[in-house]
Amino acid sequence: MTTTTVHSPDRTLAHEHAPRMPFFERAPEFYRAMVRLEQEAAKGVDPVLYHLIKIRASQINHCAFCLDMHTKDALAEGETVERVVQLAAWQESRHFYTERELAALALTEAVTVLTDGFVPDEVYAAAAAHFDEEELARVIGAIVVINSWNRIAVSTRMVPGHYTPRSAQ
């Protein structure tokens, strides 16, 4: 448990929670399978778009660990702070994103939430208008993978704040 100060000594932050379990130490083959799935999902998906998908799904799923990781990765790879910050309100700040990115973000939300039990036809049609079938399959795969990672990290309470992007190491 660490205590961190920010900006001034009188702003002491809350203590960091401990993880529930070292999931990937307990299930190493599962971890390796997830890594392979992640690698396969990333093939054919624009890395900029993939970062947006990962960040948006992680916001929806309240996955602090994944938000820490994927925002740091996106910024290290050249994404702007402005676009990352606005992602939580992308529908109100559409002008920061391309039409293709907007279609993928709408699809990310629909696949992540599934409150109606299905992805609405208009959301799928908008995505299909911007991606050919192979690209769309890859985008859906990317959304499924980040949702899986989110569920692992949230259920095991993985601790955010310690991740360093590869490009910054």
Would you identify the regions where 5 or more consecutive residues have pLDDT less than 50? Answer: none
Structural class: mainly alpha
Looking at CATH, which topology of the domain at 46-162 would you report?
Answer: AhpD-like
**Mean pLDDT over the residues:** 92
Overall, the morphology is globular
> Do you know the CATH architecture of the domain at 46-162?
Up-down Bundle
* Count of separate DSSP helical elements: 8
The fraction of residues in strands falls at under 5%
Number of strands: 2
Widest sheet, order of strands: 1-2
Q: Note the run of SSEs as H and E.
A: EEHHHHHHHH
How many strands, which pairing sense, and closed or not: the largest β-sheet? 2 strands, antiparallel
Radius of gyration: 17 Å
* CATH structural class of the domain at 46-162: Mainly Alpha
CATH superfamily descriptor of the domain at 46-162: AhpD-like
In helices, the fraction of residues equals: 55-70%
Report the span from N to C terminus. Answer: 24 Å
Polypeptide structure, described:
The chain has 169 residues and is mainly alpha-helical. The protein has a domain at 46-162: AhpD-like (Up-down Bundle), CATH 1.20.1290. Helices cover 59% and strands 4% of the residues. The protein has helices spanning 23-26, 28-42, 47-60, 64-76, 81-86, 99-113, 121-130, 133-155; strands at 5-6, 8-12. The protein has a two-stranded antiparallel sheet. β1 (5-6) and β2 (8-12) form a beta hairpin. α6 crosses α8 (133-155). 27% of the residues are buried. Pfam families: CMD. One of its GO terms (molecular function) is peroxiredoxin activity. This is Alkyl hydroperoxide reductase AhpD.
